[in-house]
Amino acid sequence: MLPSAIPTPEDFYRVLPEVLWCGFGTLIMLLQPFVKNRHFFTFLALTGALLGTGLSVISGAFAGPGFHGLIESDAFSVFFHLLVGTVAALVVLAADPYLERENLAAAEFYALLLFATAGMGVLAGAQELLTAFVGLEMSSIASYVLAGYRRDSLKSGESAMKYFLLGSFATAFFLYGIAMVYGATGTTLLNQMGAGNPQSNLLKLGLAMILIGLCFKVAAAPFQIWTPDVYEGAPTPVTALFSAGPKAGAFALMLRIFATVPAATHLWFWAFWILAVLTMFAGNLGALVQTNLKRLLAYSSIAHAGYILVAFAAVTYMTSDLNGSAGPAYAAVLFYLVSYAMVKIGAFTIVSQIGGAGEKHLSIDDYAGLGQRQPWVAATLSLFLLSLLGLPITAGFFGKLYIFKAAVESHLIWLAVIMAVNSVIGAYYYFRVIVVMYMREPSAEMAAAPLVRFPITVVLVLLFTALGTVWLGVAPNQVLNFILQPTLIGGLR
What we know:
The chain has a domain at about 265-493. It has helices at about 10-15, 15-30, 40-60, 75-100, 105-125, 130-145, 155-185, 200-220, 225-235, 235-260, 265-285, 295-320, 325-355, 370-375, 375-390, 395-410, 415-440, 445-450, 455-475, 475-485, 485-490, and strands at about 65, 70-75. Helix 3 packs antiparallel against helix 4 (about 75-100), helix 11 runs parallel beside helix 17 and helix 12 runs antiparallel to helix 13. The longest helix has about 30 residues, at about 155-185. The chain is globular, with a radius of gyration of 22 Å. The two termini are about 35 Å apart. With about 500 residues, the chain is mainly α. The model has no long low-confidence stretch (mean pLDDT about 85). It contains 21 helices and 2 strands.
């Protein structure tokens, strides 16, 4: 073997978070036959998630390409490692009482969670398409199993089957796209595709098929049909993971591809324009008729993917404009992903606890009178819903504001107007839940039921996400300054 082909220590430093997440996942599975205390595995999984997240900073200190350009360690990848690692840690804390209540094995759950997180990390740092495919499959295969983790539930099995079948189609599109891009450019390295003809129809078709595969992961219309059923049937902590983690990883890869490959032309601008409009309307109109809160939040996730795609349209417009700067649009995407992750994890954590054993209480009517029975829970859920709506002093307000500003600065006035219209549509179903909590009397069954218990781990998750939602809504500048640093945004171009 040639000496140059041997990985250096710096290469391993650049994938340190993934090594730790996979290592702890493997350790948990090896210890599972010998340790019967589920809280031990919660501690081990939390340690692994936090350690991998923290050491991503060390990974960023060794900035540069790793493994001969397959992985890029830079401020951009560090940002997403911090995001998906934090999501994983919060899901571990939220899942502990859920697994105990549902009498589900903890070790396998946490191992799959850590493997999925490692896949998301690979997606965020991938600088080569086949490496991105490996990360996508690491995340997807673990997610398929997690979706059907409640094996005694028909809905959970149905959600896993739908997720697997439709995910397989998306994988096929992604792989065919890679093959076409390779045929057009002679490489799968993103930073070397500029040598090919950017006007090649084969390259455009290949990137379009890659985009279809990624649109499935982010639940963009018309590839969103799996989302409501999978979100409803999967264990609620898994739904919290789906709503934040894989979506962030897929958007990270999408940003890297369309910021690095010189095919961000007028064609891609219109592709993202149409995707954004379809996704916003599909999510918000679908949510209007839902009576199940998990399905309502699933359609809400689709709508928010549409808002993020508005910023992508601004990115492609500014990138194709030689006099424009796409920095604000990039920053809008990254800030929105952070605020969105905070809110969704908090909301689904409350739904997980209120649902009770077997997740029987998922109807919006089950939340009637919650403002009187458990006022702090109702207030926290209201905060998350108002943030999803985008009201001031919440993270969602600045998230939508920056996307709206990016659209206006890109002269995408009609797209900004459509986004505003969809925000008004969203107000109906968000306020509907709040009205039920504070202005409706509970049913006799719910009134006679004991108050829902919120264990300390769940309280910690809610405290972290609620404070994060308010902090990002009151003082967003610290996060924005980190996002707007030249090494993060500039490293993409």
